[in-house]
Amino acid sequence: MARLDPAVRAELPDRAFAYIDSAGRRRLPLHDPAHVRNALARFGQVHFEDDEARERARMRLLTAAKRFRIVPVGFIAGQLRSERASPARVDPSGKLPSGFVTMLMTDIEGSTALVHRLGERYRELIDDVWGLLRRAVADAGGHEVEARADEFFGCFEDARGAVDAAVAMQRDLGSRLWPESLDVRVRIGIHSGYPTSTATNYIGVDVHTTARICGVGHGGQIVASANAREGAQIPASDGVRFRRLGSYRLRGIPDEVVLYQITASGLRTRFPPLRTS
Fold first, then answer.
1. Which of 108, 121, 190, 271 has its CA 20 to 30 A from that of 61?
2. In the CATH scheme, what is the homologous superfamily, with its name and number, of domain 89-263?
3. Pair 9, 17: CB distance under 8 Å
4. pLDDT: which is higher, 221 or 73
5. Which of 195, 193, 189 is nearest to 245 (CA)?
6. What are the boundaries of each domain within the chain?
7. Residue partners of 172: CB distance under 8 A and separation at least 6
8. How is residue 29 annotated by DSSP?
9. Which residue has the higher pLDDT, 90 or 125?
10. H and E: helices and strands count for the chain
11. What would the mean pLDDT of 196-218 be, rounded to a whole number?
């Protein structure tokens, strides 16, 4: 497309650009549909000063695409390919990866009933479950973010590691003999995105999306977003499948999210409809 005339470019407000660097240079104009499409195509060619600047520009660009009813499928796929070629960076503390990461969250189905049945012994059950989850995350090259109440949060530098960990978790949980013949089932949600890192945790819409995906599943089920599916790139011969469940509105998430159920040998395959309202 034709480049912006310098005079026209100068008259545009700052909000008409996805990225403004520290020197005041304005890049990736997005004031009309044609320029938004051009910005989506050129995003990967721009050098950003840091991850925060890149994320701000990405969000402004996606917001503009939504405003002009442009579905940025190619842009998202390109971002995923780029991040697979350039693994997520580990923060200076050596604990949590930053940039494009895959998050895995779990919670125990029917935990309240288990508490009433076990009383003080529930603490032992949780310790056993957390030990199993931690081993699966570590074996798949992931990192534990936090564990509290009946919930567990792990992260991975690549989506494939998260999928491998989730499958291992469900296989181990399904084969474990629990005290008093208890049926302990864990729901798992997986999502890939750009969460904001704090000293010891993550914040942002991608974290909330992961939590919501986990919450709509059932015990024994692994539910993943389209981002996680694209990031994992699992070959058909691998034995792991992503079965499309549909597009869903998740509480507190502005846009519909396409969800998949991960299936593999040794895992349950039949579940009730997702727990969405």
1. 190
2. Nucleotide cyclase, GGDEF domain (3.30.70.1230)
3. no
4. 221
5. 189
6. 6-71, 89-263
7. 132, 136
8. E
9. 125
10. 9, 13
11. 92
